[in-house]
Structure formats: C-alpha cells, structure tokens
Amino acid sequence: MKSMTSHDTLSVPRDFICPITREIMQNPVLLVEDGHSYEFDAIERWLTDNNTSPMTNKTLNDRRFVNNFNLKSAIEEYCAQKNTILSSNQFLTFNIRYSRMPNTWKNKPTLNICVSLLGSSNTGKTTLARYLQYGLQSKFVHLNSTVTVAADLSFFYLDQLYEDKYVVIIQLSDIPGMERYESCCDNHFRHCHGALIVTDSTDIDTLERAELYWYKQLQLKGQDHVEYMLVCNKSDLFQRHCDDDYRRIFLERAENFASLHQISIHYVSALKGDNISSMFKQLILRILQNELLLDQIKENSSLNGRSSIKLKRMRRVPATQVSLQSPSSSSTTQDECDRDSFRRRCC
Question: Phi then psi for 19, rounded to 5 degrees?
Fold first, then answer.
C-alpha cells in the first residue's frame, strides 16, 4: 500500500494509519500494554530491535499483541467506500465517443441506453445528432441534411466504465418530425430510456407542438420513469434574428411549459455546438442515477448476455450428417439387403 501524502492523511481517520509505517493498516494488531494498534509486520519488526512502545517510548513489560478485528472491519469498509467515491468521480469525467470501442472492453458487460430525439421537422434534430458524431467538424456536413423519413440510428459509447465494469453504449434515435411519418415513432416512445424534446426557438409553433403532441405521446406511450429534457435549439439565430417581443413571449412559454411538467430546459445551438455535449452528458447521468431505469437496463443487459452465451453453445449440424434415417435403421436395412442377396445366390 502506498504511503499517505499530507493531503491523504488529513482525509483518513487517524486510527486507521499505522504510527510506524504512516500507511493505512491492512492487518492491524493491538499492542496490549500501550493500547495502540499497529500494522502486524511493522510492530513485529519493531519488537525485534526494540523493547519500547513506538508511541510512548516507554519500556514494555508485556510485548504481546492481538488481532484488532473491529478496526480491520472498519478500515475495509472505509476503503470500499473510498474506492466507490473515487470510481464515481472518475466516471464523471467521461466523454461521448463515436468510434470503435477498445478491444480490451470486448468481453465486459454492457449497459445499453436508448435515447430518442423528438420534435417537429426542421428543429435541428439531425444537426444535433451529427454534432455528437463529428463534433465541430459537423459544420462541413450539415448542408447535406435531408428530411428524416425514418428513424436514423447512431451508436456511441462512454470512454469511462460505469461502476468500474460496465461499458455504456448509447443508441440515439433521430425520429421523423413530419406528421405523416409519426406512426413510425411508437416503438421509439416505448423503448427509450431518455428523450430530448427538441424545439426551434425561432419558431414558436414547434414549442406548441412539443407540448401538445410530443410530450403527451411520450407520457402516453413511454416508460413510466423515462428521463427527458426540453431542448430549445438555434439559440444563435434566436439572439440574432428575433426581436425583443418574440424572445420574451417564447421564453415565457418555454418556462411555463417546463414549470408545469417539471422539465429542465437547455438552450443550445446544434450548428455551433453550444451546450450540446454538456446537455447530453446530463441526460445520460440522470438515466444512470434513476434507480428504477438502471435496474431495468442492467436486467436487459443480463438477459442479452445469457442469450448470447446460449447461442455460442449451440452447434450447427453439417449438411453431410443430415439423414432421413437413423444410423440403426440404416444398418438394419443394409443387413436385410445382404440376406436377400444370399438367398438368391443359394437358389
């Protein structure tokens, strides 16, 4: 175990540190006469060369020591909690990656999170998805955007393991926004764990549509504990091209909608990338912190893992081994043919 720095020592309970090694004890023992605990190996070496207490420097009349099991249990519990906190803090630094996962993660369990982009046509959902894919380079591809007529799927992963063992994979579904394609959306309402309800902040009709249709459909068809956010896109155009009266009305309507349904609001620019990554990371964290959703995601992951194991164990029978007759039946038939041939020769 590493030595404690001055910063670490301040955060560790004093009784957990061996007075000799200045490290957290792994196998603490209690020196009977002076009443202090030490690391077993350290006090054993000390008593080989000394006849005094390491703490009081007084001569020892009784050199016996006994295991301090209560202290050991307390130290183990503290270390487990410390590791959990460190792991959680490390995970919070995650980034969203749109590339191939490391080969070292291939056999690790996965958490598959489904996120849907909901909203009317021309609100910038596809541009938002492309920013998550390409980052600032997305400005070179946004001009080729076309109307979404079916759900476009993108897959991402987080570059930090969740709970030090799970690979988090995100399926992002860009849902068609035109009314004639709305029948395609039902499956994505039902199975998503998170949703971004996207509006065009320069078009107040998209905000009304978000409240009257997209939000209601998500409540009606979505899972009970789905996490969602209201995304007001095109904030750059909103500030530059909309007059004061329009901005005031839009902001009031958006805030009333959010307050009524207790939805967080994020003002973003998918084209410029403003607030996109932070907003998406917040949604992922909310999903992972939702215990009911997380239990469901872990259960699905476990079921998928067992299914894949069963598939690996299945063996396909080569076509050359397939026969309409069993081996015993084939052997019997051959014996009968041999007997008939023998009878004909005898006659």
Answer: -65, -20
Which two structure tokens, joined as six digits, stand for 286? 């909310």
Burial class of residue 324, CB neighbours in 10 A (0-12, 13-18, 19+): exposed
Please give the structure tokens belonging to residue 187: 């499956």
Q: Which residue has the tokens 């959306």?
A: 185
Which CATH number among 3.30.40.10, 2.60.40.10, 3.40.50.2000, 3.30.720.210 corresponds to the domain 6-91? 3.30.40.10
Q: How many angstroms separate the CA atoms of 104 and 90, rounded?
A: 19
Parse the chain into domains and list their residue ranges.
Answer: 6-91, 96-300
Read off the amino acid at residue 150. A
pLDDT in tens, the chain (347 residues): 444 443 444 478 999 999 999 999 999 999 999 999 999 999 999 999 999 999 999 999 999 999 999 999 999 999 888 877 777 777 888 889 988 889 999 899 999 999 999 999 899 999 999 999 887 665 555 455 555 555 688 899 999 999 889 999 999 999 886 665 556 667 778 889 999 999 999 999 999 999 999 999 999 998 889 999 999 999 999 999 999 999 999 999 999 999 999 999 999 999 899 999 999 999 999 999 999 999 999 998 877 665 554 544 544 444 444 444 444 444 444 455 454 544 444 43
Q: Is the pTM of this model over 0.90?
A: no
CATH topology of domain 96-300: Rossmann fold (3.40.50)
* CA pair distance 318, 326, nearest whole angstrom: 16
The number of angstroms, rounded, from the C-alpha of 80 to the middle of its chain's C-alpha atoms is 21
